[in-house]
Amino acid sequence: MSRLPSGGLIDRAKPLAFTFDGKNYSGLAGDTLASALLANDVRLVGRSFKYHRPRGILTAGSEEPNALVTLRTGARAEPNTRATMAQLFDGLEATSQNRWPSLAFDVMAANQLFAPFLVAGFYYKTFMWPAKFWEKVYEPLIRRAAGLGALSMQPDPDSYDRAHDFCDLLVIGGGPAGLAAALTAGRLGLRVIIANEDWLLGGRLLAERHEIEGAPALRWVDEAVAELGSLPSVTVLNRTAVFGAYDDREFGALEQVSDQVRAPAPGQPRQRLWKIVAKRTLLATGAIERPLVFGGNDRPGVMTASAVASYVNRFAVAPGNRAVVFTTSDSGWATTLDLLAAGVKVVAVVDARSDPGSPAVVKVQQAEVEILTGAVVTDAYGKTVKAVDVRTAKGGIRRIEADLLAAAGGWNPSIGIGSNLGDRPIWSEAIHAFVMATPSSAMLPIGAAAGHFSLREALTDGIRSIEGIARDLGRAVPKSAIPRTTEDAAEVKPLWHVGPHRTKAFVDFQNDVTDTDVRLAAQEGFVSIEHLKRYTTLGMATDQGKTSQLNGHALLAAATGRSIAETGTILSRSPYTPVAIGAFAGHHRDGDFRPERHTASQQWASEQGAIFVDAGPWKRAQWFARPGERDWLDTVNREVTMTRYGVGICDVSTLGKIDVHGPDAGTLLDRLYINTFSTLAIGKARYGIMLREDGFVMDDGTTTRFAEDRFFVTTTTANAAKIMQHIDYARQVLWPELDVQASSVTEHWSTYSVAGPLSRTLLQKLLLTLDLSNDRFPYMAATELRWRDAPARLFRLSFSGELAYEISVPATHGDMLVRALFEVGNAFDAVAYGTEALGVMRIEKGHPAGNELNGQTTASDLGMARMMSTKKDFIGRVMAGRPGLTDPDRPSLVGIRPLGGARLRAGGHLIPRGAQAVAANDQGYVTSVAFSSTLGHWIGLALLKRGSDRIGERIIVHDPVRGPDVEVEVCNPVFVDPEGIRVRG
Amino acid sequence: MANSLIVTERSGFGAATIMARKGVSTAALGDALGFAPPEGPARIERDGLALIGTGPATWLAMTDAPETGWPASLEQKLKGLASISDQSGSYRVFSIAGDSARSLLQRGAFIDLHTDVFGQGSAATTVIAHIGTVFWQVDDRPNFEIAVFRSYAPSFLRWLEASSASL
């Protein structure tokens, strides 16, 4: 065990059992999985992506590239969990990734032997030839060998939810700068949200030893946390990572609600996605320590110095017994003191600088630790580190035995979110790192994120930034005092490369990109920073290059003889940290993938055994199967036959319904429809067609006039929303001078079609006071009435070709009406029919529907050229006159009937008899087919070149996918009652 | 009771869309109605008639006890001034009350519901769980009422159930 005897923010009274690769271990409350593994001397945690090299724990934060594990098992298994971010819980199960058969012995590690083939751009080079090998050999091979973790392939048992919030100030990060800012702003009464990735507030103060106002800094943190909790206008979101900045000051954040427990409590989500709108944002995201590039720098036992400080101070774990500290910055010296204070032997401090100025140097000297200045570590050796080579100031190589190498390469401000909206970071010579190019009052970096690395600067930034923001927001600005802090030196001299080394030196650990890869990319001409990323994969995958980016860019700069400022850096895109797709989907999965719409007869239809079909978001009854029916066709034939010879009832509430009111309603409708509506008599309905601006048919439906200034428009189910939009566009944008109002009433009316020769008799029994005789209520008549004390409407409309009516009541009464219709209808053997029978009857009647109103047909194509008024202008009139749209060769609507009773299929292409089945001979296609129980054979509607001139001709339906060619006769598309006697009867 | 949430469904109400005719001012509508309709997303209730602003010159009118033939009386009052569409069947209206009501709605609605911004008489026309809604704050219990298109109500209630479980 490497647990230190005292200290740390862990609860020694609360041991937690966990397993890693099936082996039992014990950690403590307050541990991460990473700290618990280190406490148990587990240092080998995973295998790398490409070369399957052994990897350990590099960092103690969200930037971790190496220690990715699969957390939990079974359906809850989550691959690529950063061990450094997983809070330990009792019963945690973790397994390592990218190894086969075991972590210690990985067959794929042989990839290292093939390393020359796996260099930068290997995807593009090695497997190019022979081409036919790609699919069968190369791709499966690469897929098996590479990749990060594996999915469980089981449905996720957990839920994810969504929340929204708005604030004056969003503070991203709960370190000293963020805490000071949130506290100052909260005291002013600003609405503050502080989002903190960690489960504890404090940031670096949890991991480093500082004093504020003469007391340990953690006391200041505790007081700050307590005060924030007492401020009503402050919301603290712990375990919440802000992952992206979006337009209009909107931010995305992920709260890990239940990731720290074995399974979420009942009702609780696993994670919650936040959308936050902030008037002002402070980027208090701190900085990430750069690794150093030397041979073997990826071996378990090599860590960033800040991670070492974290494990020692926060988790009371010694990550090694003999440490070498390799530093280019003052912070490495502070870590050396932390190790010494914890009783860990430090065998040497190697500083690349020749005269480090940190006050800690003297203390380290006093502790009799060997100090090598002007020196670099060139290589680390051992499966886990056993020894390191140091090139001294004089140029000699010295081997030092050590099992821990703490590397302090300087600091990169975490400004990824700051560049999400396109602000490309610029190079700062002062801090040797990229900083935000245009920090603004809308999003201001503070503390380490602004390159102000000392604690005093962080607190100062936090407090002073609020003074500016408060002024901006028109609040009073009291001057706050800056707390006194201990000094912490923050000088750094960058070292991008250590010079000659013997073993592989990694720049990007997660993608196995080495210093040589970067040089190779440059040699091959990939000198743009964005090309380097794509070619080498540097900076890709879950860590998005948080530890690797700048080292890679600096090496590219060196290889191309440019400065880093000239070379530039990439733009960070959201999400800044990985977010599971499930969190984005939230509630909307499985049955809730999208909302469903139910008509008022849903319950009744379910009771009748309806099979439902999706019609956009609507659930519509497709057919109502009865016992003894062999298949759907049996059922549909019965529904059609009983309707045509008796009476059938169908819910048609899903059709779009729009009230168009006002003195100019008729004028507007004349401009929307190809035919005229202003002359429509009150109490009458008329069928109409609307065109798009480009002259093609957009939608059809009936419109009824109930008063001089009250029209009632219906649309197809599919186009209901689109036509509402179209009408609003026309009245608001095209002709605002018209006095006309429009309102969707689709939801208000529940409508049933009552069709068949007995429909009048049935309805007459339901509506005793109304005279439904043909004289008094003829075809296309409409009236308003009351039914059971509710408003109702009756229309004499027919889609089926039979004597038929549509009856509407408010949706509140829809269930009551359908039951009442069948109570009366039972005496007439009334049948419920679904959308399938509806479709059969409209095909028998030759009515175009969605398959024909497909956006590619004109009114003329559909046989409705004569409906187009020549006495008025309407939308689409001019474009409908284009030569291409009036070409007599255009396919037009015809009926087809097969010779010899063959089955027809929609989609089959029409070829002249004797012609070869090639595209050049294609003369159209079958749009809709049905088995006509009325006629006893299959029938179809088709769009055929010069179709209306070819009635009686025989042609071939060619369907190479689903069946043999079928010879058909071209006929009138109206198969049943072409004279229209029944509808008028 | 801490974190209370009481969801009940209203029934028997009347609802209608009022859209002002061209050039008719809100004040003119107010004269005809006896009180001025709200300008913007807000709700005003007088003598059993509530008007909720849902768009420019557009209101949702609600009444708890519609007389037979409603909204004929409204049409009569506003004859020549506004177009009226009966929407009594269009919505299911739920009352969401209690300490957690505001948090619940904020989970669903991406508009600011903070008490400083959204109080008694405030209204919003927005989307919750991809479903169009109109909601308003009735009183400071607080009690909110939310109108959801009838056909979408089962899906809305599934969201409501899942989200209230996680409060």
Structural notes for this entry:
The complex is a heterodimer of chains A (985) and B (167). Chain A is of the alpha+beta class and 985 residues long. Chain A folds into 6 domains: 160-287 and 414-472, FAD/NAD(P)-binding domain; 291-406, 3-Layer(bba) Sandwich (FAD/NAD(P)-binding domain), CATH 3.50.50.60; 495-567, Arc Repressor Mutant, subunit A, CATH 1.10.10; 598-654 and 748-841, Probable tRNA modification gtpase trme, domain 1 (Gyrase A, domain 2); 656-744, Aminomethyltransferase beta-barrel domains (Alpha-Beta Plaits, 2-Layer Sandwich); 887-985, Elongation Factor Tu (Ef-tu), domain 3. Chain A contains 22 helices and 50 strands. In chain A, strands 8, 9, 12, 13, 14, 15 and 28 form a 7-stranded mixed β-sheet that branches. In chain A, a hairpin with a 4-residue loop joins strand 26 and strand 27 (433-435). In chain A, helix 16 (632-645) packs across helix 21 (835-844). Chain B is α+β, with helices and mostly antiparallel strands and 167 residues long. Chain B folds into 2 domains: 12-86, Heterotetrameric sarcosine oxidase (Alpha-Beta Plaits), CATH 3.30.70.1520; 90-165, 2-Layer Sandwich (Gyrase A, domain 2). Chain B is built from 4 helices and 10 strands, in the order ββαβββαββαβββα. Chain B has a 5-stranded antiparallel β-sheet with strand order 1-7-10-9-8. A 5-stranded antiparallel β-sheet of chain B has the order 3-4-5-2-6, with no helix packed on it. In chain B, a hairpin with a 2-residue loop joins strand 3 (43-46) and strand 4 (49-55). Chains A and B meet through strand 8, strand 15, strand 31 and strand 39 of A and strand 2, strand 6, helix 3 and helix 4 of B.
Distance between the termini of chain A: 95 Å
**Compute the gyration radius of chain A: what is it?**
38 Å
Strand residues, percent of chain B: 35-45%
DSSP helical segment count of chain A: 22
Principal-axis shape of chain B equals globular
Instruction: Spell the H/E element sequence of chain B.
Output: EEHEEEHEEHEEEH
Please give the number of β-strands of chain B.
Answer: 10
Q: Sheet with the most strands of chain A?
A: 7 strands, mixed
Q: What is the count of structural domains of chain B?
A: 2
